[in-house]
């Protein structure tokens, strides 16, 4: 076991971001001492299982996978700290993480790749810049990617999510039936597992911690997944408390309903900004 497994970005003013190198999972984001992310009290930190909460990194597969674990391997491998936290001239703090192919990844997905994940902590914002590079001279590969963000909320039933009106969604709770969203704002009052397609660049979630709003801005992530397991499915998860489902909502920016196809020698870039309003 390597010694350090968490990396902390500290902007001052009790504003911090903590990343566990297991999966480069963001496990805490505090703004003025107020935690913004949900992590289950039953989350397992054994360096094997994906961490239940925070922001797991889903790559190169979203959902069940014939060749490896659900949601791919990026969330269960140890990432490298490419650049330790450094204060920028603006006062913001930056760190960079990376993974590349090795025997383990090649046993599931036999491609060379390099994935870099840059985080910048601002006063009330967290910025994510992602790049995937295909170093091959002749092989094209395809993949899914998603930031599986678990927002902490006092009561999910009081949250409204904007930016989904008119979007087509695949409802995983109804055998992947496709529907069109007719509501101006989406609310959650039951088991919800939906892939909204071609969503706009911005969503706002109301009534997150301290009654505030959370703005999500995303670039090159055409899909938005909304997930809450609700009571029965919460009971079925060993690493999620039975009574925790009202305190989280997953609003996940991703490229999942169609794959990213990456030609030899090219790179894919995507980003997200979370902002407490
Ligand atoms: C969501 C999926 O993104 O992740 C759900 O849409 C899934 O279908 C959920 O249940 C949690 O997945 P996991 O593998 O972390 O239990």
UniProtKB/TrEMBL annotation:
The protein's role, per its UniProt record: Mutarotase that catalyzes the interconversion of beta-D-galactose and alpha-D-galactose during galactose metabolism. Beta-D-galactose is metabolized in the liver into glucose 1-phosphate, the primary metabolic fuel, by the action of four enzymes that constitute the Leloir pathway: GALM, GALK1 (galactokinase), GALT (galactose-1-phosphate uridylyltransferase) and GALE (UDP-galactose-4'-epimerase). Involved in the maintenance of the equilibrium between the beta- and alpha-anomers of galactose, therefore ensuring a sufficient supply of the alpha-anomer for GALK1.
InterPro entries named in the record: Aldose_1/G6P_1-epimerase, G6P_1-epimerase, Gal_mutarotase_sf_dom, GH-type_carb-bd
Keyword Isomerase: yes
CDD domains: D-hex-6-P-epi_like
Pathway the protein contributes to: Carbohydrate metabolism; galactose metabolism
The keyword Isomerase is annotated on this UniProt entry: yes
Superkingdom of origin organism: Eukaryota
A GO MF term: carbohydrate binding
Organism: Agrilus planipennis (Emerald ash borer)
Binding site for substrate: 52, 70, 75
Family: Belongs to the glucose-6-phosphate 1-epimerase family.
EC number(s) given by UniProt: 5.1.3.15
Lineage, top ranks: Eukaryota, Metazoa, Ecdysozoa, Arthropoda, Hexapoda
UniProt-annotated catalytic positions: 148, 252
Record protein name field: glucose-6-phosphate 1-epimerase
């Amino acid at each position: 076991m390597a010694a350090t497994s968490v990396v902390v970005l500290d902007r001052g003013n009790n504003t911090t971001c903590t990343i566990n190198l297991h999966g480069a999972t963001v496990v805490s984001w505090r703004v003025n001492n107020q935690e913004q992310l949900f992590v289950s009290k039953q989350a397992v930190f054994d360096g094997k299982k994906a961490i239940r909460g925070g922001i797991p990194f889903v790559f190169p597969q979203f959902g069940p996978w014939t060749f490896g674990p659900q949601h791919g391997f990026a969330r269960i491998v140890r990432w490298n700290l490419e650049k330790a936290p450094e204060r920028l001239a603006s006062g913001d703090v930056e760190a960079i993480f990376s993974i590349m192919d090795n025997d383990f990844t090649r046993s599931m997905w036999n491609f060379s790749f390099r994935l870099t994940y840059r985080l910048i902590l601002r006063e009330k914002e967290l910025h994510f810049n992602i790049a995937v590079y295909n170093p091959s001279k002749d092989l094209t590969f395809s993949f899914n990617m998603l930031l599986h963000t678990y927002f902490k909320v006092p009561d999910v039933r009081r949250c409204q999510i904007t930016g989904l009106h008119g979007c087509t969604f695949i409802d995983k709770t109804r055998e992947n039936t496709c529907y069109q969203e007719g509501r101006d704002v989406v609310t959650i009052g039951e088991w919800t597992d939906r892939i909204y397609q071609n969503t706009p660049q911005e969503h706002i979630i109301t009534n997150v911690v301290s009654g505030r709003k959370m703005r999500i801005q995303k670039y090159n992530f055409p899909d938005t997944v909304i997930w809450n397991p609700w009571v029965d499915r919460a009971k079925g998860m060993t690493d999620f408390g039975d009574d925790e489902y009202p305190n989280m909502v997953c609003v996940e920016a991703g490229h999942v309903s169609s794959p990213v196809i990456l030609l030899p020698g090219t790179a894919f870039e995507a980003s997200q900004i979370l902002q407490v309003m």
